[in-house]
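Subject: for your reference before the review

Hello V.,

The reviewers asked for a structural picture of the protein, and I figured it would be easier to keep everything in one thread rather than splitting it across files. Below is the amino acid sequence we used in the manuscript, unchanged from the supplementary table.
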Amino acid sequence: MKIFFYRLNVFNIELPALRERKEDINALAKSFMQSESAEMQISKAALQALNDYNWKGNVRELESVIKRAVIFAKSENRSMIQLTDLPKKLLKKQNIVSKILFLNHCEVKNSHTHL
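And here is what came back from the structure prediction:
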């Protein structure tokens, strides 16, 4: 077993933290969401909150947030993750919260006009 780990250590791959690769957040979030539920979607407001958050953890933290959000959305028989499905720690910045709530309101309003 030691030999195996020694050989793995030869290839050291360094990835920047998720907070330094904001351009990956949308693709990762959608991938995690689809692996949990093929029909699940995410609102623009929720996606914006994920992008605005300064991720202290890495990809696993994002994956956990998405899994939690899918569970909350499904518990309310919804197929779209909304802002309310995300942990409050993602919404702590006051200016972000008001912008996101406005986006969420517009999305809900637009979805009702298409019925």
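For the response letter, the relevant points are probably these. The beta strands are 41-42, 80-81. The helical segments are 2-8, 25-36, 44-52, 59-75, 94-113.

Happy to draft the paragraph if you're swamped.

O.
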